[in-house]
Structures are given as C-alpha cells and as structure tokens.
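Worked example 3. Consider a protein that binds S-adenosylmethionine.
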Amino acid sequence: MSGKYEALIKEGLDAMQLSFSAEQLQQLERYIAEVELFNPIYKLVGAEGDDLVIRHIFDSLSAVGKIGEFARQYETPSFADLGSGAGLPGIPLAIALNAYPFTLVERMERRVNFLRNALVATGLSERVQIAAQDLKQVRQHFDVITFRAFRPLVEILDDVAPILSDGGLVCAYKGIGEQVESELIQVASQCKSRWSAEVFPLTVPHLDANRTLCVLTKI
Ligand SMILES: C[S@@+](CC[C@H](N)C(=O)[O-])C[C@H]1O[C@@H](n2cnc3c(N)ncnc32)[C@H](O)[C@@H]1O
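Given these inputs, the predicted complex is written out as structure tokens:
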C-alpha cells in the first residue's frame, strides 16, 4: 500500500483492531480510488478526502468485528448488502470478510455500472455478485443481510423477511440508539414479520457521531 490514505487507513484499522493483508489493503485502496474517480459523475457519496475514508470506509468497517463474530456460526455464510449504492457497506465488508460470498442489491442502473467497475478494479468480481434489481424481486436467501442509509426498518423488514435464511441475521447500520429503539417500536406494531433485535454501539475512528448496529433475527 502506498497511497495518499495509507497512514490514515493503517491507523483506523489498528483502532478497529482489524488486521488486513497486503492484498486487502490494496483492494481497499483501489476501491477508494474508484469512488474518487466516479464520484464527480455519479454523485456516489457526499464526502471527499479523509472525510470519505472516515465517513464511508471506516463507518462500514466499524461493524466487522461484530458481524464477523456472528458470521462464524454459519459454515460459509452468504451475505447480501441491500441498497448498496456505491457498495457501502458491502464492498469494504467483502474485503474484510474475505472468505465469504457477497451479493450487492442495487436497483439504480448508474450505481450498478459503478459497482461492476469497482468489483473488477478490486479483483472481487468472482466472489461478489451484483443483483441489479429491486429488493422485492430478489429470490435468493442469505444468512447475513446488511444495509446502511437504506430505509426505515418498518418500511423494509417485510420485504427482507422472505430472503433471509432460517436462523439468518439482519445487520442494520444505524445512528442514535434512541432512534433505533423508536424504529423498533414501529416494527413491532406495523410489520407483518416478527423480529427480535439487539442494538450494539459502534466506534468509528475519527468520527464524532453516534453509530449503532441493529441486529435482528426473525421469530
Ligand atoms: C441512500 S443510498 C445508500 C447507499 C449506501 N448503502 C450507503 O450507505 O452509502 C440508498 C440506495 O438504495 C437503493 N435502493 C433504494 N430502494 C431500493 C430497493 N427497493 N431495491 C434496491 N435498491 C434500492 C438506491 O438506488 C440507493 O442507491
């Protein structure tokens, strides 16, 4: 790794207690370079420079410890990242959790085009698939389903339930714990599917914001 974010990335990974191989570091660097290259055209993320690394890469990776811990209960867990956009958190997670297959679900064509390029640039095309469709059209099942900045839980969990494997987990990247709790109250009163949830605090290096991971299982 020799890019302009080398020191920041190494420091962030240390703070999150993540150990990346040279290949993973290179994949991360190539992914960031793709986002920076296409951001002016595709308007992928609203941050640049160190801020891009902190708000998007570190934020995505901040849940790797927790998600990796859960994933180890399956033999080879299949992952789906819903409303993946620029591949967040899906691509950083696929780089970090490099033994598992991932599917990025995204319905907007230009973002899908970006994702295709990014997977080629990072060498992830074999292990990471793209489902270029609406979540409602997905017919596969997944053991671990992630999403970030997608939709309120109450609006999507009934569409997520049919694609979650028996015993599977939904890992939703969220903000302030109290807001998540009020989303969960709506889920309990308005969703047809039934869920049990636990909320874990996340620490994102250099980010002064409340971040949480809401982990849901079907009951
Ligand atoms: C606000 S962006 C968030 C992108 C990314 N997850 C992130 O954290 O930066 C939401 C993305 O979800 C996609 N999306 C919204 N509804 C969807 C659906 N029903 N099926 C598939 N993709 C959807 C949008 O096209 C958009 O790219």
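Take a moment to read the result before moving on. The radius of gyration is 16 Å. Strands lie at 79-82, 102-105, 128-131, 142-148, 164-174, 195-202, 211-218.
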